[in-house]
Every structure is written in C-alpha cells, then in structure tokens.
Amino acid sequence: MKNKGQDVYMISGGVTKFTKASPEADFRLRTKKAFDYALNDVGMTLKDIDGSVASYFSDHFQRQLMSGIMAQDYLGLTPKPSKRVEGGGATGGLSFQAGVEEVASGRMNTCVVYGFETMSHVNTWKGNEFIALASDTNFDYPIGGFYTGYYAMMATRHMHEFGTTVEQLAKVSVKNHGNALHNPYAQSPMKITVEDVRKSPMVSYPLTRLDVCAMSDGAAVAVLANEEKAFELCDNPVLIKGIGTGTDTMRLSDRPHGKVILLPNETEADYKNLKYPGVHSFRAGRSAAKEAYQSAGITDPLEELDIVELHDAYTSSEIQTYEDLGLCKYGEGGHFVEEGKADLKGKVAVNPSGGLLACGHPVGATGIMQAVFMFWQLQRTIKKHFKDDALQISNAKRGLIHSHAGTGTYVTATIMEAVK
After folding, report:
1. What domain count does the chain have?
2. In percent, how much of the chain has pLDDT > 90?
3. Distance CA 63, CA 359 (A)
C-alpha cells in the first residue's frame, strides 16, 4: 500500500454459528442476523452506513446468481453503493480489504462488509467438485483436481524436504479443535489426541479427515469507518494498520524456482540451498505478508504479533503458513507447533478461535469471521461475545488475519492494532 489514504478502523462485527446445514435460515436471514448483531453492538442504524461489499465464493451452491444484491436488498441497504468480490478461498479476506479501500479512499465514511456461503444444498462430493472448479478446468480439473489431493502432495513434499512429521500435522488439529471448545460460533469443537487424528479416515495421504476443514453454512459482518466516524460510533475501535495481497500462477507446475522473498528479519544466508517456492511453500503468502509488514512498520513478526488467525483449511497449510508469514524459518513449521509456540500461551497465539479446521469454512464468510474474532480479541471483549474468556489473549496489541485461495493463488494478510 504505497499511499494509505486516511486511516481505517473496524468498529463492530457479527458472526452466525457456523454449521454443517441450516435449513431454517437462507443466506439472507443468516447475513441479517450477523448484520443486526454488529449494528446493535454499537447502536448504529442504516443511516450510519454509506455502502457495502458483498462476499461470497460460488453461485453454484445456491443455484442463484446475484446473491449479493439479494442480501443488499434484505439488509435494507439499497440504493447505497455495493459490489461483490470473489477470489476462491480468499474471498472473505479480499472483500475485507476492498472495504478498507473504500474507506481509505474517502469514497465512504462507513462501509459494511458482509459475507456468506450456503454449502449444504449439495452433497459433499458435489461440493468438492464445485470447489475444484477453482482449479484450471482445462488442465488440472479433468485429471482429478480435487484440492485435498493438491494439499496432500504439498504436505508430502514438505515432509520430504524438511522432515515434517504426520504427528506434527496432527498437533495443529488437536490445538485448533481444542481451542474451539470455548468458541460458541464453531462448528466442530472437540477434545482430541494426535492418535485420534491419525486414526480418523484417510482422505489423501498423509491427510486424514481430522486434518481437513469442513464445508459449512454461515455468515459474518464487519463494519469499517474512518477515524472521525469510528470514534463517534465506537468507544474502542481497532485500527487497520496495514494490508497486503499476493498472487501466484493457477497451476503449480508453472511456478518457477527463484530466490526466497525475504522478510525484514531474514537474510539470503538463511536460505542458501532452498528451492523456492517449490510445492512446499506459498509465494503469494510470502508476498502478502511482506507488503502488510511494510505497510504496518513490522520488522520482526514473531516479536510484534500477538495473535494470528490464519487459513488452516488443512493442518499442513497452517504449518506452511507459519513459514510464509515469517513466524519461523522455512522448514521449521513442524517444530514451531510441536514446541507449543502457536498455543494460546505460546510465542504467538495462532487460531485461538479454532480456525477453519474447527470453526468451519463457509467460504465467503470465513475471512470476515477472522476479522470479527480478531476485532473482539484486540478490543478485549471475548468474554462479552463468547460468554467465556478462556480464549482471550491477555494484553494483545496487534494481530494478523490471513486468507488463502486455491493452491496459493490469492493470499491476503491484514494487520489489525488495538488503540486502547
């Protein structure tokens, strides 16, 4: 972000419980519930909103085009400006950043970002087929391009390259499902062991069922404002300190080897013999992190971040993302989780909410859900919204939220900072 424009703050948020299916409420009603929660929490009305961004991934699940305008209408936001943003698994993160840009540019004083997905309308196999359409339908898809297969291949390469173990992958699942026991919005809270993860049904080696996130129904809403409106409407807003977005080729086979993109706390000597990015790392994730850190003035992420909510669609991708974000060096992600550095009381709390593995993954809502949970953490209001403060990270000052699409084709990183 070369020219930041005016400062942007998050001032409120709302999330519905993520569930396997919610036949009692369509996407509009779920979005309305999250929207009403967000507005009521700060006493806003429709008159306080200048415009919106709609976030949803797929038209296929609902067999409904233009779902965004249907939600806009249901929320009572017509004829105010709005647009739909879509970018695979990163849809929520991209939409959140689009809302930041609307306010930073001065176009809007306040902007609502609402996201939703209804994935229960189809069987799991059909849902996987729809998600697979986010691969190259002329190249990958016809030969069985389902995403668990891609991530299994990447995990296997990470294990070969760095010695990562299946037990280290399983520890991610144990951590995140355990955290979710205290999150009333989570779809799959559970107390499990490494052995439970490894004994669950194999999906694609080395990934078992408990290494993989679930499809979900759900909605989430974030409210953004400029400085003047933020402090007028909210007693404790949270600053959007910096944003970054990275991209990469759709096809893994097209990604060239080159020098590692270095973060401020790294040197070329750290990676003398590393083939990068290979299929063990996400170049787009590293690019997004670098831009976000530069924008926020962060020089050592492990020391300067207190919380990270990252896109753990697979246990392996959480480990890969530790490395992309510079929380540890490439190759050290397995040890990072094994040593407890990502635990609630570790060096940096990663996915205290439970992440996608335990919360679920209604795609258009996911990145916005991360923003809402980070907002409540930095406001120190987890007990208010969760009815339990077990997940509140004490004295948290700065956090990062991370969204990821495809095999790392779009990746976003957004830095949020407490002002009190």
Report:
1. 1
2. 87
3. 25
